[in-house]
Structures are given as C-alpha cells and as structure tokens.
Design goal:
- The chain is of the alpha/beta class and 324 residues long.
- The chain has 2 domains: 15-106 and 210-320, Periplasmic binding protein-like II (D-Maltodextrin-Binding Protein, domain 2); 110-205, D-Maltodextrin-Binding Protein, domain 2 (3-Layer(aba) Sandwich), CATH 3.40.190.10.
- The chain is built from 14 helices and 10 strands.
- The strands form 2 sheets. Strands 2-1-3-10-4 form a 5-stranded mixed beta sheet, sandwiched between helices. A 5-stranded mixed beta sheet has the order 7-6-8-5-9, with helices on both faces.
- The radius of gyration is 21 Å and the shape is globular.
- The N and C termini lie far apart (55 Å).
C-alpha cells in the first residue's frame, strides 16, 4: 500500500512539473490584423500547447515595432512573436533577448496593389513612381525596398512616401498622390477592397524576408529552457497541422480574423499556405540577411549585423537546428 501511494505521489509530482499551475498569455504583433501569428490560434484551439505541457490560453495583440518587443520583455512568459528589425535594434542597445525561432518565411502576408485604371501592370513599371508607406523605417518601407530590388530596380528608383498609416496610403492612392502601396492580405480582403484595387504582385511572388520571429528573454532561456523548447515544439506542431488541415484551420482563423468573411479567410489562408509562408521554426539565412539589408537601406542601422549575436538555435527541435 505504501509503495502504491508513493507511486501515485511521484506521478502527481511529475504531472505538476510538466503543466504550470496558471494560464499564461503570449504577445504576438498585430495578431488580428496580420496573419503572421495564425499558428498560435491553432495551437491554443487544438490543444498543442497543453499537449506539450505549456498552459498558454490567450494571445495579446502587440502594437508592433519596439512596443511589441518591450511587451515581450515585460511579460511573465518572456516569449512572443514580433517583427525582426526592432529586435535587432534592441539587442544592439543591450537588451537581453534572442531570436529563437522563425514564425514566417516571406512577405507573403501582403499584396502590392494599384488602382484598377493604373498604367502599372507589373512591378518593373514602378521606376519613377511613388510608393506609399505608413512611416519611415517601418516594416512597410523595408518591404518596399526589397520588392523594388526583386524587380531589378534600385531602391532610389521608386520614391517612398510616408503617409502615417495604411489607410492614409490607400486614400492617397485613390486621390492620385501615390501610385502603389502594399497592405496586409487581411486589410486587402476587408470591406470590399479586393474590388477597389488591382494586385500587381501576389503573396507567392513577394521577397523572402521574415516579418515574424519568435524571441525569448534571457531570463526564460536561463531559468526555464525546457519550457521554451516546449513552446517552440507546440508551435511547430500547430504549423504542421495547418498545412495538413487547411479547411479546418480556416474555420478556426475565421474567429480571429473577423469581420473578414469566412470565404475570404479561406482564400487568404490558401494563398499563404501555397506560398509556404508559415515556418515550422527553423531559422533561415536568406530571410534574415534580407532583414539586415533592408534595415541598412532604410537607415535603421549603418553597419552590418553579425547574425550569430542575435540568434540562438539551441532551443529548436533537432530537425530544425541545421536549417539554412
């Protein structure tokens, strides 16, 4: 009997060690306005976090930029998904954080659009034109310079015009003040925008620069490395499930991306999956190198970045550690 009780106690302690006693939130940049963080909705809904012994039950939508990075640093969890440029800047300033996994692999969450009557038919026609962005040194400006480069043009061949926000860019384009802009797919398919504008560059054709990466604080990495590994593993399983189950994934994400109609959600998700937008977590060289190059072109940094100083691959599953 004593032996049986000892076994029960040991088992209970083992379970207690695996699952935390309280629910935790995770910070994801622009969670409902940008599709980059979709895997977290899937991981929560399908129970992958709980399966891996992590009790993450809610997502907090970050405002973006340095604000989201600071939110992750201040959070109890110490992990979140944010844009890479402000992370690199924060590390250069001495913040104790690292990039520990990829969330997304390209700029496929956006579309490049013009007015229906625009003479611009392809990206090469942009030479001498005006591209509307929200703000200087933003992800939108980084996207613009890399897209222009992909067309074989120089960044200075296209004038970038800052208009404060994406809605401002759309209004300016409608009034003829700019010629082209890029917007998230969710915004493009909202409120009939897909009938108001013409796409000249689809998600699959956009440059390989990651807009979403997982970061962890030094505190989490040192004090609870196994927990960090479980978070990344749960997210990996969610991404694998999305590719295998696109229809059910769309039904789950329709709740997150509302009021976008379910049919539009499915179209958007299918485009993203076809573009291999979502990463299982492996940190690829080219998308990160493009981040650094775009940061230099837009004046965010003036020197090269040794990516080994901002990345830690040791928490990735073994099959992702050698991804190049």
């Amino acid at each position: 009997m004593l032996a049986l009780r000892g076994s029960i106690v040991a088992a209970a302690l083992g379970l207690a060690a695996l699952a935390p006693a309280y629910a935790e939130d995770i910070v994801v940049t622009q969670y409902k306005a940008d599709p980059s963080g979709a895997s977290f909705a899937i991981a929560i809904e399908k129970g992958f976090f709980k399966k891996h012994g992590v009790n993450i039950t809610e997502v907090i939508s970050g405002e973006g930029g340095g604000t989201s990075v600071r939110n992750v640093i201040a959070s109890d969890l110490g992990y979140g998904e944010v844009s890479p440029a402000p992370v690199i800047s924060a590390i250069k300033e001495g913040q104790d954080i690292k990039i520990v996994n990829f969330g997304t692999r390209s700029l496929a969450s956006n579309v490049v659009i013009v007015m229906p009557n625009s003479p611009i038919q392809k990206i090469e026609d942009l030479k001498g034109k005006k591209w509307g962005i929200s703000n200087p040194k933003s992800l939108g400006e980084m996207s613009a310079v890399l897209t222009v480069e992909k067309a074989g043009l120089k960044p200075e061949d296209v004038q970038r015009v800052a208009l404060g926000n994406l809605q401002g860019a759309l209004t300016a384009m409608e009034n003829g003040a700019i010629d082209v802009t890029s917007v998230p797919g969710i915004l493009y398919r909202s409120r009939g925008n897909d009938q108001k504008y013409r796409v000249i560059l689809k998600p699959k054709d956009l440059p390989r620069m990651t807009p979403g990466i997982g970061i962890a604080t030094g505190d989490l990495m040192r004090k609870n490395p196994d927990k960090l590994r479980r978070i990344i593993a749960a997210r990996q399983e969610a991404v694998q499930w999305m590719y295998k189950n696109p229809k059910e994934s769309g039904e789950i994400l329709a709740k997150v991306w509302a009021p976008l109609p379910p049919a539009a959600v499915q179209i958007l998700l299918d485009e993203l999956l076809d573009a291999q937008f979502y990463s299982e977590g492996g940190i690829e060289d080219a998308p990160m190198e493009n981040v650094v190059r775009a940061m230099k072109i837009t004046g965010m940094i003036d020197t090269d970045v040794d990516l080994k100083t901002v990345i830690d691959k040791s928490f990735l599953p073994d099959n992702l550690k050698n991804v190049k």
